[in-house]
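W.,

You were right to be curious about this one. When I first looked at the sequence I had no strong expectations either way, so I just let the prediction run and decided to look at it fresh. Below is the sequence, 117 residues in total, followed by the output.
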Amino acid sequence: MREAGSRKWELPGGKIDSELNETLFDAANRELLEEVGLEMNSGSKLVRTEIEEFDDTPIVNCFIVHTDEFDGEPVINTDELDKLKWVRPEEYKELDWHANSGYSIPPIEKLGYYLKN
């Protein structure tokens, strides 16, 4: 998905809502539904990446979730986005990614490995 007013691409995502007692998959599904109108039928944790900021921000754990079973059609559900695009893993690195999505590039480059193991 692409941020409105920008040429930068980013992935659907957000935070786990501890007040709702969300699981990783609940949060991933909620964010996917809120941002692009898709709902996962099943999912598996593919990669966990730890990001350490250089200021007083705590370490952030990022999870990449894999699914190939969706309900719904992709739509832009917010005015913060202006475009959606499906890309193959080999096309992924060619896009101009927002800095917040940079963590996803190394796992996507090894997607075939992760999916087999």
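Here's what jumped out at me. The first strand starts at residue 2 and ends at 3. And, maybe more interesting for your project: Strands lie at 2-3, 39-40, 44-51, 60-66, 70-71, 81-83.

Coffee later to discuss?

I.
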